[in-house]
Structures are given as C-alpha cells and as structure tokens.
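Contributing new complexes? Match this layout with magnesium ion.
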Amino acid sequence: MIEALNLINVSLEYPDGSSTLKALDKVSLSLRRGEFLSLVGPSGSGKSSLLAVAATLVKPTAGLVVIDGQDVSALSDAERTALRRDKVGIIFQQPNLLPALTAVEQLLIREHLRGKPVREEREKAAKLLDVVGLSGMAHKRPHQLSGGQRQRVNIARALMGSPTVLLVDEPTAALDHERSGSIVRLLRQVTDEFRTATIMVTHDTEFLPITDAVATMRDGRISRTLVPSSQPM
Ligand code: ADP
Ligand code: MG
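Output block (do not edit by hand):
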C-alpha cells in the first residue's frame, strides 16, 4: 500500500546574512491514511516549515515530498496546485474565515468561485458541518460563533476537498483547555472517519495520547517517532 505522505531527506534553507539557516535538516517522515501524528518541539525548531513543505506551499531545498505516490518536485506549478486542492487539507491556528460569509458559505466559497455549487457540494457541506458538531449553525457568520466553533468551521472547510493529508498547525493555541481537548478529539474522529494522514503541531502535551505517534523537532531535525503511551506524561 502506498504511503499517503512521504518526506525523504527533506531540507529547507533560508538565506541568513552571509550564511544560511537550516529550517529543515534532512527530515524523513512517512504517514499512512488514518494515522494521526503529533509534532512537538520548541519555537523555531521547524514545525511550521515542515507543514509548509508537506502542504506543497514551499519547495524544499533538497529531498523529496511524495503525496499519494506522486513526487511533488516532478510536477508543474499548475499540477502542484491541483494536487494541493485534491489531496491536502490545511488548518492554521487562526481560522481565517471571511467575516461576511455564513458557515456553510465558508465551505462552499471555492465552488462558488468556479460557478454555482451543485447539489452534491451543498449536501457535503451540510454533512461536514454536522460531523464537526455545528448542526443548526450553517447560517451563522463568524462573529456569531465562539472561537471553538470557528475552528470547527475551519476543520470542516479543510475536509471539503476530501484530502488525503490533513496538516494542522497549533489548532488549539487560541482556545481554553476544555475547547482544546474537544478540538483534538474532533481531529481524531475525522482522521478515523475520513482516513486522512493527519499531522498536528501542538504544545498541549496532555492531548498526545489521543494521537498515534509523536515526533519531536529540534533545530530542523526530527526525532524518531514514539507512541504516546510509551512517553512519560
Ligand atoms: P516553528 O514552527 O517550530 O516555530 P518555523 O518552521 O516557523 O518553526 O521556523 C524554523 C526556522 O526557520 C526559524 O529559525 C525561523 O526563524 C526560520 N524561518 C521560517 N520561515 C522563514 C522565512 N520565510 N524566511 C526566513 N526564515 C524563516
Ligand atoms: Mg510554527
């Protein structure tokens, strides 16, 4: 079976005065569908850089990114954009919802831009709002929703494209403890239900046992992944 996501010896360098800064240093990682990986590590260790490269938003300086068996470096810009749309869901810390749109419209905006959404897309959006616990909230605008509810809309929106790979950067950073737990449990649920290969950057070590494995980054390098139950809590 093909891995959903493979990073092979991926390095990412940024110019830094007269030298270079290695944001990623020969990172290798592979994830199957239905696997949920936590990514932890100090600020500046390269976690967001890893997600940006896996999301095909940033080209690595060296190494390979393979999504569903496709080597991303072999694709044209247009093909890479299409691969991202079809295979990758991205969830950032701040939901970045459009203030004027209702919850269901946030999910359908891409379809709107390509023409009027068809019935299947509307049904899919309504179903996803149910899945993330927002039944009855489809017509609420962001200012009418709590921080946790906005993050749920964000998660539903990322699932609209039926992604293979779900990349989540500090989804609970703006939330209180109770809401944080429910968001991580929701990410576990959608990983299981939609069989996404999910990477979540987090600082909440308490929620690591909800995930399948933990990888730690330090100075652009990734450690061997551990199963959470073997970690001292
Ligand atoms: P983390 O998400 O773990 O806090 P980042 O991936 O954001 O870490 O950053 C890793 C390193 O790369 C840091 O030293 C950061 O300053 C640097 N970096 C990140 N993005 C850029 C950029 N666009 N240009 C230059 N340096 C960057
Ligand atoms: Mg970061």
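Reviewers usually confirm one structural detail per submission. For this one: Residues 177-194 form the longest helix (18 residues).
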